Amino acid sequence: MYITEDIFQIVFQHPSSRGMNANAYLITGEKPCLIDTGFGDQNSTSAIVEAFNQAKVNLENLALIIGTHAHMDHIGGISSLKLRSKAKIAMHKLEDARMRDLQLKGNLEQIKTDRFLEDGEIVDLGKTKLQVILTPGHTSGHICLYQQERGILFSGDHIISGTPDGTVYIGPPDGDVSQYIASLNKLLKLEPKMILPGHGQIINDPREKINSILKHHLEREKQLISVLESGEKTVEQIAKIIYDRVDSTTAGAVIGRLKKLVNDGSIEVVRKDHLNLYRVRK
Q: What is the CATH number of the domain that holds 76?
């Protein structure tokens, strides 16, 4: 689906019926560029081929593939696309390290990153120029891409739609709530006019969306502190109260938020009976 005359959105169905669909974006023109690649399964590959055909872009002429971050729903197809085209691979060096770890585990074929992207760098695609915005939080080397002339922000997983308040997982291994909030404020200052997210629908009210996410995080912090005001608790106990379930996702999200509150000095962690217990700082 065309978003503008030169930006084509590709939607990938999640291999599992319980997961979220993912988005990639093909920028046509002098130097065709693909932002993210989907899951890498057969359905994702078919969606890419169909999108290139609709956009009248020869897959072999793809010049650049940019990974916003190295999670499999965003770079799962990067190896096969690299092999089928002339494209260079670009991402932040911290995400390259994550991709190499995925390769060692056998989740991706062995390819190398051709270009390491840094904050503020301009990716020149000819008519289109993309500014690299380093936005750590969801992952340590997550990047967004900003087309300043039209105010279009490709947000990867930093800002998504389709979940309550646009929230994403921020927790182990390298999620950081403090960095995530700082990155949101960094994006807010850009005053984008449109956000093209890594999941969900296009966001046409960026300021309202970002402020809504910031408000959600503030409310979560207040909720967590309120939970601890009744007494010290483990991660699992907190997750059960806040999310009404305990699993790796909810526990990880709690850990990410606890880390911020410990660093802020709002709460502290104590060790008792071989357990980490969290409590409001006295």
A: 3.60.15.10
Give the separation between CA 63 and CA 84, rounded to whole angstroms.
11
CA dihedral of residues 11, 190, 169, 90 (deg, nearest 10): 60
Which tokens sit at 7? 């930006």
Pairing state of beta strands 152-156 and 194-197?
parallel
- Answer whether residue 224 is part of any domain: no
**Chain center to CA of 94:** 14
Average pLDDT over residues 220-230: 95
Are 179 and 141 within 8 A, CB to CB? no
Whether residue 195 is found in the same domain as residue 259: no
Number of domains in the chain: 2
Query: In this structure, are 177 and 236 located in the same domain?
Result: no
3-state secondary structure of 122: strand
Task: Decide if pLDDT at 60 tops 90.
Answer: yes
Give the end of a domain, one of 171, 187, 218: 218
Other Cβ atoms closer than 10 A to 182: 13
Q: For the residues 212-220, what does the mean pLDDT come to?
A: 94
What pLDDT shows up at residue 12? 96
Residue 96 domain boundaries: 2-218
Q: Which of 170, 190, 218 is the last residue of a domain?
A: 218
Cβ proximity of 272 and 231 under 8 Å? no
257-261-263-265 Cα dihedral, nearest 10 degrees: -170
Q: Give the pLDDT confidence of 111-161 residue by residue, as tens digits.
A: 999 999 999 999 999 999 999 999 999 999 999 999 999 999 999 999 999
How much is the pLDDT for 113?
96
